[in-house]
Amino acid sequence: MKPEQASEHLQELTTHCIRCGFCLESCPTFVETGNELSSPRGRIYLVRSATEGKLKWEDIRPSLDSCLGCRACETACPSGVQYGQILEFARERISKDHPDKAKEALLGSTTSPSMLRTQLGLGRLLPGKRIPAALSKLLSGEVSEVDRPVPQSEVRLPDLDSSSLPAVKGEVYLLEGCAMRVLFPRVHQATRRLLRRAGYTVHEVNQGCCGSMHAHSGYLDAARQMAEALIHAMPGDLPIVVNSAGCGSTIKEYGHLLPNSEAATAFGARVVDASEFLHRNGFVTELRKSNGLSTKVTYHDACHLSHGQRITAQPRELLAAIPGIELVPLAESDMCCGSAGIYNVLQPKMARSLLERKYANIAATEAAIVATGNPGCHAWIAQAAREHGRKVSVLHTMELLEAAFTGIAPFED
Ligand code: SF4
Ligand code: SF4
Questions:
Q1: Which residue minimizes the CA distance to atom 7 of ligand 1?
Q2: What is the number of domains present in the chain?
């Protein structure tokens, strides 16, 4: 999209806001601050003013930087405002005029599996050091309160019993992602096993980053290149199963990222969240026949699953089907935990405040396990769980579903 087209598109997107304010109480940064400039309505007004030349783009940057990109405002909006697109196009506009080298370097390191592995390896060499905080300090020259958990050891699961498996009825692709494959390879292991239990095998391909974090940060040209490479890597019409909410949300919307590409829209239509896929394939019935787990579980809605993809019922129905599980509701379950991609590194105070709020709600359920569907939320909430004495374990929904069959629930190291 040419710059003038992007600007017109951005202005048009903002015209759908009727300033009703219905979104305000759903917005975590407004709830925390009470400040209109930290609300969706305020941010849209600022963007519209900048597109009209009434405000300078760099002057509205702090308000946009403080936005989580959680899209809770979209779910709440009666007018159908596409806030996620507004944010991405506005961030792109700002970053083109005023590049942020520290942010670019951080994006590069968190979306490269080899660089992530290097950072985690460094973490092992420097016990007690907070590696992402050190990285953030290196990049920006500022001290960050943020850290992330060290990687957890892989769980050794027994081989699948072929006599109990259904005949193979199809193939799918599995998106490996960047953070997921490095931080939580056990989630891919669980997902592959569940897919096989549902009668599907994974068609293996070399694949790179989907561009999700770049898109959310407004680096749309980089995200487009990554999208095109991923489309090329997964030809044909096989479903593309994704177990990372942020990636799934972005890929489903490749048509927005590449508006002149029919291939991008068609590719997005093939994407299905892992919980959505299993649910669609009758897996609730399979889970009811599983060995089960005797434990109390609650569920945190990852923003890009609940707000980005509007998937809330399927994971809950799958979890509730496990014999012996008591699934208890979580207050503010669809409020962002503060992780939000690289937000917790760039905006540590707000991220920390939202994490403590999330953890307090989780603790109030007295659940032994909190399940979720995104690696960012998983790592961030697990950090709070460690700091608060490991009274609750954080698991990806896929891990818990697989544990229903094996009886082996992987806990934090
Ligand atoms: S974004 Fe939607 S809910 Fe929020 S003020 Fe605008 S129209 Fe109302
Ligand atoms: S994306 Fe989230 S933080 Fe940003 S304005 Fe919307 S609700 Fe608020």
A1: 17
A2: 4
